[in-house]
Amino acid sequence: MKIESYLTKTLQIEFPLIMAPMHFVSNAEMVKAAMKSGIAGTFPSLNHRKDGELEAMIDTLNDYYKSENPTGTYGINMIVGKSNPFYQKHLDICVERKVPFYITSLGNPKDVIERAHSYGAKVLSDVTNIEHAKKAHAMGCDGFIAVGQGAGGHAGPYPLQVLIPALRKEFPDMPIIAAGGISTGAGVFSMLAVGASGVSMGTRFISSNESKVDDSYKNGIVNAKMEDILLTDRLTGTPSSAINNDFIKKLGVKQRFFERFLSNNRFTKKYFKMYIQMRGMKWLEGEVIPGSKDSLWMAGQSVELIDDIKPIEEIVNQLKAETIEQYMQTQKFFV
Ligand SMILES: Cc1cc2nc3c(=O)[nH]c(=O)nc-3n(C[C@H](O)[C@H](O)[C@H](O)COP(=O)(O)O)c2cc1C
User: Fold this and answer.
1) Which residue has the CA at smallest separation from atom 5 of ligand 1?
2) CATH 3.20.20.70 at 6-211+308-331, yes or no
3) pLDDT per residue over 303-316, tens digit each?
């Protein structure tokens, strides 16, 4: 039995799943393993900031696609707008190499949409509420990634069981991908049931063999429970989820008075946002340095349901089997 949806048909993948882009966590091995497993692997362009790095990463993936003929694909996440100083340069590189699809987060996605559409690529925009979605829709995005409560990274304020039907009501024909708190096939099935065309998962893939974060972070995810996840404003100025370890205890969860002042002042806000995003990135870099036991461990509430570290192909095969199994189980309620 196979699942067919907007996501599988448009991206030409086997199973309606995106391995979500993750700062400093996503890497070439993870994306290739995702492609091999029949899903869409992604990474943030900002993971490759040195000259020539992004070009090399895309060339590697394009070569892999041509030579291995995988049943999945790959896409790139662009943080759009002024807080990303690499935005225009990275967009030029991606368009020149015809990246298959894009995920936009934060600012206005207009440029990415126009340039992606010039060669037929699709753009999915991260949204956390209806207002946000209206703006992305007006710019012409092809679908939404609805980021809900409990997500790793920048979590949304609303539960997906409300956000997805609310988006569906407002935009009856727009594809919606669910993100946040999903790490099992039952979770995938539940999102299809409320109207999503697929799912995007980040946290589950941090504890995979291919991820290069320190083992203490992978084990931190396996051992953490949902109550261990805190939201902190201090990383990027927007609430971000992380495991409540010694690093977060020292960092705190609320911006200081002076940080709030600089974030809101009209003369300083642009520069301060740039500064705190760069500072947050430096902290995130700590995650991938081997042996860095007391670093930032970004993760969402789905840690509760993650019990092992294994290869991405096994994770995806388990998700495929569990999703079908959940579908079968649900039949028994209909008499
Ligand atoms: C460690 C980590 C880093 C992330 N970095 C990014 C990023 O660079 N860009 C982005 O759009 N989302 C980022 N996210 C959010 C994910 O793309 C995705 O929305 C989220 O992981 C989905 O929720 P889940 O973790 O509960 O599966 C990150 C999430 C995590 C856990």
Assistant:
1) 22
2) yes
3) 999 999 999 999 99
